[in-house]
Amino acid sequence: MDIVVCVKHVPETAEAELKIDSTGKNIEKTGLVYDINEWDDYALEEAVRIKEKQGGTVTAITIGTEDFDSTLRKCLARGADAAIRLTDPKFQGSDAYATAKILHSIIKNLHCDLILCGLQAGDDGSAAVGTILAQLLGVPHATMVKKLELCTGTAKVNRELEGGLEEILEIKLPALFAVSTGINEPRYVSIMGIRKAMQKEIKVLGLADTGLTEAYVGEAGSWLKTEKLYVPPVEKQAEFLKGTPDEVATKIAELLKSRGLI
Amino acid sequence: MEFKLNNEQIEIKRAAREFAEKEFTPELALEYDQKEEFPLGLYKKAAQLGFTSMRIPCEYGGQGYGVLEDCIVVEELCRVDPGLGVAVSLGNLMVPDVLLRHGNEEQKQRYIPPLAKGEKIAAAAFTEPEHGSDITRMDSTAKKTGDEWTINGAKEFITNAPIADTFIILCQSDPNAQPSHRGQSIFLVEKGMPGLEATKLHGKMGIKPCVTGSLCMSDLKVPDANLVGELNKGFYYTLELFDGTRITVAAQAVGMAQGAFEKALNYAKTRKQFGQPIINFQAVSFKLADMTIKIEAARLMMYKAAWLYDKEKPNPVATSIAKAYASRVAMEVTDDAIQIFGGYGYLADYHVERFHRCAKITEIYEGTSEIQKLTICNYLQKQT
Amino acid sequence: MTAIFVLAEHRQGIIRDITYEMLTKAHEIAQKTNTELTAVILGKSAKEKAKPLTEYAQKVLIIEDQKLENFTSDAYQKVLSTLIKEHKPLLTLIGHTSYGIDLAPRLATELNIPLATDCIDLAFEGGTFTVTRQMYGGKVNTTATARKAQSYMATIRQAAFQPQKPQPPANGQIIEQPSPLTEEAATKRFIEYVLPPPGGVDITAADKLVGIGRGIKDQANMPQMEEFAKTIGAVLACSRPIVDKGWLSNDRQVGSSGKTVKPKLYIALGISGAFQHVLGMKNSDLIIAINKDPNAPIFSFSDYGVVEDLFKIVPALKNKINELKIQK
User: Fold this and answer.
1) Range of the domain at B164
2) What ipTM did this prediction achieve?
3) Which residues of chain B are within 8 Å of residue A198 when distances are taken between CB atoms?
4) Do A194 and B12 touch (CB under 8 A)?
5) Across all residues in chain C, what is the average pLDDT?
């Protein structure tokens, strides 16, 4: 089974204070630590597990600058066999649609039985690239995949619905699946993996290799254009309780008592 | 000259950091600091990922990297927690080094792979109750009868002694040798051999998850096949060993300093006094700047010593410089970190006091700072 | 007259809230753009569900087909692309839900209609389709404009809008169209629903909940959390990462892929407040959040906040509450 995994290199922002940069269209990125997008991490792990069980290859693909190589190297170290980075200044400003177009231009020429990607990215959260890519490739797909079972020529997937409900679908291969977090437990990068990864080359391709013209990539090829970023207005601001842990605990306990909650 | 790690080293650093950050949780660190117990599960996990066998060649189940890559890992592990970091990275302490250099093929094949894979734990026993920095004479003796050696004596402050499966023990094999260090030999000993007894030492100031103990050898019978390398060369084997391990101690020190520094920086940015974050006060911010300068210098010295070891040849002076300086920096930076935390810094829950307690060992083991300075002075005296 | 389409979402016979939320917002846009609000409902027996939609929309388009009994994005895509090609609505709204996420990007691509996903606000400003979305887990908002087109599409975040029936009710006209589906989809087949395992804890019935998140850090801290919950007489609930790690079963999960709760007290421990979680708990009577990160979005949804390591507050609070209990 040959598998392509689409990955993205994103800043970790869960515990960071974000500021808008001077263009107003991006966040201030200095000081942020980048890593593989959390959802893609699970997609990669799923791909490697399938390969380990059934044989075949895993190719990781991303669109981005040289910095993105570190995420690709992580993929290689965790078990991917090949890595492709698509890079071109013209790709700047691509939305989900243009991104999918660029990926499609390369993936359509790769042999693959399965395409895996994360449900969404932690930065823009579009949750759309995979599904658009599936349409462009003309293969069936499923998103929010929480369990993936491969049979001959088909896959049985559990999709998460709301409220703890799941549905099971049977989907013909080749197909594209956008996986949810929790589908597996991603492994650590091992030193053995790093050694192997360093022997593998990251293939770098540009706009010319995609066969696309400028009109299809970047802002020109996008459905959406970012106008501005801003820190969201506070709906309701919590009243902050301050003091030593003991003082804070006393305040909370009194609050609960006054509301008859204890 | 290039002042940056290559891509492979960056990946190693990142992998070690990710592992340590996810596994060495503050709660676990506190727990093991209190329990004084070796984190066996963590050690095995780290070993399976290759973090504990960086310098062991691939053919013996290791990773085949140099001292520099090993130091990168050690720094990252100690940055997250000094106790767990030291314990995990010292699981196969020194034994593979000695065997790789001087052991015969059979000894290498038999003893190194289980250590590389984390299946077994090693202890290297040099220090004695009466001989710490001065190992030119050993009170532990090895006497040969037929094809067997009988070892008698005691060893003190031995890392991993209570939990190790494989030991190397430095003994006086020729009591009449002049000078005495020309009559020392190293023997391989296994747990469970009659006459070998280990006792756990309690109440260490820091690196508590790294268990330490004493060894008592009474009529311990060891086959001649367990002699490592040549007879009466043990002293020299031991000295050359320190050239590498001392750089690793410098890496521990840099990691501890870095970890405490980051905690202090973070605290200084969030802790408010007089209506503003305390980092706005020069008394605090200059301290942080000084800490940064010291850590950077210590790291570069450590990198240089490691680089020389890997690329040219072990350089005892560069090694001693790195160890003496980095360990002092670790003491100073962790001290400053406590100061920045104020009263909270004095509490275990805020972690920096543990960094400080742990840092002290780096000035003591693998040759005290005074011994490092002696090495440097010897070199200076020889300069014309 | 051009239309605004709203795809009614239903599952297991029930029209889902997102439908009314979208209809409410679409009603406002339809008035401003002078378009006709059209609810679109597909299903095996869609007609019987159409009634409440008529209160919101001027038209309710119904496609009934045995093959639409259960949602599959394939079948929905075929039907909707036919409808959109025929009616050329100015805008089509679909929920940013497990169904919408599976359907909308593919449908928009087939029709080459600009799509904005997971919108929390949208408008036509001077003829330009403008949306508000969130990035970086809700820490940043973004305004984006769509490429000029005849028709647009957006998926709408759940609970972004409060449903409100138009007054007077729209009294919409029900129009049934034939299904364009000719055969069962060949590539994707719905097999069954999997219900969450029974016999678990019903967090929706609890008066008090202690919600735990990523900040718990280690499974070894779970007993401490359970004990704390017990001390204040609460049930333990959690955000998604805890379920992903297998520390609690998914019947404890609060949020869009878990349960929606409305207890008298919700204490959020180490929960950053991603909207998926907030969606499930923001209507609790009293919310107290404890988080190290002063910028955690959870504080925007809480009544009281504590910026501190939860492992310092929790033991102290447990002691205080025990003291109060003894005093009684």
Assistant:
1) 122-235
2) 0.92
3) 7-8, 11
4) yes
5) 92
Q: What beta strand segments (E) does B31-82 contain?
A: none
Q: How far apart are CA C266 and CA C118, in angstroms?
A: 26
Query: What global pTM score does this model have?
Result: 0.90
Nearest to C304 among A159, A164, A239 (CB): A239
C221 touches chain B (CB under 8 A): yes
Per-residue model confidence (pLDDT) at position C202: 83
Neighbours of chain B (3+ CB pairs under 8 A): A, C
Yes or no: say if B202 and B36 are a contact pair by the CB < 8 Å rule. Answer: yes
Task: Delineate the domains of chain A, giving CATH numbers in brackets.
Answer: 2-216 (3.40.50.620)
Mutation target to probe the B interface, by most B beta carbons within 10 A, among A38, A75, A188, A198 is A188
Which among B27, B30, B35 is the top mutation candidate for probing chain C, defined by the most C β-carbons within 10 Å of its own β-carbon? Answer: B27
Whole-number pLDDT of residue C328: 60
Report how far apart, in Å, the C-alpha atoms of A132 and of each of A142, B165, B239, C129 are.
Answer: 11, 58, 65, 21
From C280, C261, C268, select the one nearest C201 (Cα to Cα): C261
Catalytic positions of B, written as ranges: 366
Residue type, A86: L
How confident is the model over B163-175, as pLDDT tens digits? 999 999 999 999 9
Chain B residues whose C-beta sits inside 8 Å of any chain A C-beta: 7-8, 10-12, 14-15, 18-19, 22, 48-51, 54, 63-65, 73
- Output the pLDDT for position B376: 96
CATH number of B63's domain: 1.10.540.10
Question: Which residues make Cβ contacts (< 8 Å) with residue A54, sequence separation at least 6?
Answer: A1, A150
Looking at the fold, whether B89 and B181 belong to one and the same domain comes out as no
Side chain identity, residue B322: A
Q: What is the pLDDT of residues A176-226, one digit of tens each?
A: 999 999 999 999 999 999 999 999 999 999 999 999 999 999 999 999 999
Which residues in chain A land under pLDDT 70?
Answer: 235
Percent of chain C predicted with pLDDT > 70: 99
**Distance (Å) from the C-alpha of residue B6 to the closest C-alpha of chain A?**
11
